[in-house]
Design brief:
68% of the residues lie in helices and 6% in strands. It is mainly α and 373 residues long. The chain contains 19 helices and five strands. The radius of gyration is 23 Å and the shape is globular. Strand 3 and strand 4 form a beta hairpin. The C terminus is likely disordered.
Length: 373
C-alpha cells in the first residue's frame, strides 16, 4: 500500500514542480551546486532540477514509514503516520521547491536508523554531518540532551563536541538588536503543520514531556521546537535550521492520539473522532490551497500571492530579454537564459492566465545580456 501512495504522491509533486516557475533562492541553489548546475546545463527546465528533490522527499516518506513500524504493530497505523508526515504543508512545499530541508530530513533519518541499529556507524556519520551544514547543530544539541537523559555521559560529551565544532565552523547567529519574534515563530510553525495540527503537535510534545518516556525522536523534535521558541524571544529564526527536525515528530503525534483513543470505550470516543476529522479536514484544505493555489490570485491579488515571483519569472521567461533592476528577479530569469535587453525594448503588461502580474520592458528579438550572479 505504501508504494501505491508514494506513486500517487510522486505524481502530485511532479505535476506541481512542472507548473511552478523557478524562484530566486532555487536559482541560487542551482548555480552554486555542481549537481544542479549539471542537470540545468542538460535540460534547462524547472522539472528536471527539481526531480532529485522530489525523489529524496519520497525516500523520506518511506523512511518515516519504516521508522513508524517501531512504534506501531499495525502496519496501517505506520502507514497513516507516513501519510500524515507527507501531508504537512511544509513537506509538500519542500518536495516541490528546491531547498536544503529535504536533504537535512533525509540525513537525519539515516542517522536515526544507524543510531538504532548500528550505534558505532552512527557516531562516524555524525562526525561527517557536522561538516555539512549549520542546521545539524540543533541535531547534536538534541542528542546531547538525550544522552544526558539516559545518563550516558561519554556519548553526551561526544555530541557536545560535535555541537561546538559545528558552531565553530558555521557560526550560530544570536547577534543583532534583540527583538521579540515569539508570535511570528508560532505563526511559522502553524503554516508548517496547519494551525489545528500544530496545536496537537504542541500538546504531544508537552504530554510526552510530563507523562511519558522520551526517546530519540522526541528529543530531536522537541529540542528543535523549544529552542526555536527560546531564540524567538530575541531574534527572528531561520526556518530551515529548525523545521526539518520539528516535522519528525509525526509518529509521536499519531502514537499519542491512538493511545488516547484506544484506552476509551466506544461511547467515549466520539469527541476524539470529531477532533480527528476536524484536524485532518483542516489539514487537507490547507494542502489543496497549497497545491492548487492559482485561484488565490483572485482572493489576495497578484503581489500578495505567496508564489507571485515564481509565476512572474515563468511568464517573463517567454521573452528574449527583460529590463529589471530587481536582483532576485534577474537571478530567477538567468535560470531561463533571459538577461537584460542590449538595446530597445517595449513596455508590455504581463499576465498569468487572466491575472495581471505587472508591466515590464521586454523584447522578443533583441540580443540578451546575461545578468550578474
Amino acid at each position: 500500500m505504501i508504494y501505491l501512495y508514494l506513486l500517487f504522491y510522486g505524481l502530485l509533486l511532479l505535476y506541481k514542480a512542472s507548473t511552478l516557475g523557478i524562484g530566486a533562492q532555487e536559482a541560487q541553489i542551482v548555480f552554486s551546486s555542481p549537481l544542479f548546475s549539471w542537470i540545468h546545463s542538460l535540460f534547462k527546465s524547472e522539472l528536471a532540477v527539481r526531480v532529485p528533490n522530489i525523489a529524496v522527499t519520497l525516500v523520506n516518506i518511506y523512511l518515516i514509514y519504516l521508522l513508524s513500524k517501531r512504534y506501531f504493530k499495525d502496519e496501517k497505523e505506520a502507514l497513516f503516520s507516513a501519510v500524515l508526515f507527507s501531508l504537512f504543508p511544509a513537506i509538500i512545499a519542500s518536495g516541490v521547491v528546491l531547498n536544503k530541508a529535504t536533504f537535512i530530513i533525509f540525513l537525519t533519518l539515516v542517522f536515526i536508523f544507524l543510531y538504532q541499529n548500528r550505534r558505532l556507524f552512527s557516531y562516524i556519520f555524525a562526525f561527517f554531518l557536522l561538516f555539512l551544514d549549520n542546521s545539524f547543530a540543533i541535531l547534536f544539541l538534541a542528542l546531547f540532551f538525550y544522552a544526558l537523559y539516559r545518563r550516558d555521559y561519554r556519548e553526551g560529551l561526544f555530541f557536545l563536541l560535535c555541537f561546538l565544532l559545528n558552531v565553530a565552523l558555521f557560526g550560530f547567529d544570536i547577534g543583532g538588536k534583540p527583538r521579540n519574534y515569539f508570535l511570528d515563530t508560532f505563526a511559522i510553525f502553524a503554516t508548517i503543520f496547519s494551525p489545528l495540527l500544530f496545536l496537537y503537535f504542541f500538546y504531544t510534545i508537552y504530554r510526552i514531556l510530563v507523562k511519558e518516556q522520551k526517546d530519540i525522536l522526541w528529543f530531536i523534535s522537541a529540542t528543535a521546537f523549544l529552542f526555536s521558541l527560546f531564540l524567538s524571544f530575541r531574534q527572528k529564526i531561520e526556518l530551515l535550521d529548525f523545521a526539518p527536525f520539528v516535522v519528525l515528530g509525526a509518529p509521536l503525534m499519531v502514537r499519542t492520539f491512538l493511545n488516547s483513543y484506544k484506552v476509551r470505550i466506544k461511547k467515549h470516543r466520539k469527541k476524539l473522532k470529531l477532533m480527528f476529522f476536524l484536524v485532518m479536514g483542516s489539514l487537507i484544505v490547507n494542502d489543496v490551497l497549497l497545491v492548487f493555489n492559482d485561484f488565490l490570485f483572485y482572493v489576495y491579488g497578484a503581489k500578495k500571492h505567496f508564489a507571485y515571483r515564481n509565476y512572474l519569472a515563468s511568464e517573463l521567461s517567454k521573452f528574449d530579454c527583460v529590463e529589471t533592476e530587481n536582483k532576485k528577479l534577474q537571478l530567477a530569469l538567468k535560470f531561463y537564459g533571459v538577461g537584460g535587453c542590449d538595446g530597445g525594448c517595449k513596455k508590455r503588461e504581463i499576465f498569468y492566465k487572466d491575472i495581471y502580474l505587472g508591466s515590464f520592458c521586454v523584447s522578443e528579438g533583441n540580443k540578451t545580456e546575461e545578468p550578474p550572479r
